[in-house]
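# step 3/5: fold
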Amino acid sequence: AGHTAALVAALFTSDWDLLGDALRDRLAEPYRKGDLPGFERVCTAAMEAGASGFGISGAGPSLVAICRSRERAREVGAAMLHALEAATGLPSTLHLSAVGQGARVVSTLGPDQGRS
């Protein structure tokens, strides 16, 4: 729960340092990273290429890096892909996804609406 709150706060305030910290799971990651070949090399490559944060996506085996710009994301993604393929010898897939507008209110209920 603490990581989720920190992640939301970081995104809301554009605190890139907090965002990077919020992505690291200090409880599960030490145990889970052993199941992800090349994890350390990919993490190092992502951060050295300028990622703001890096972590395991969901239950894995996907890895995620957060970047400040589309250009930086391309650079980080290429570095991650190269590091993973060098570490495992296996072809890998890179998926870049831009965050658009984000969450927004599309409609609201008035005080008398939505009641039966």
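# step 4/5: annotate
Helices lie at 2-13, 16-23, 29-32, 39-48, 70-88.
# step 5/5: archive (pending)
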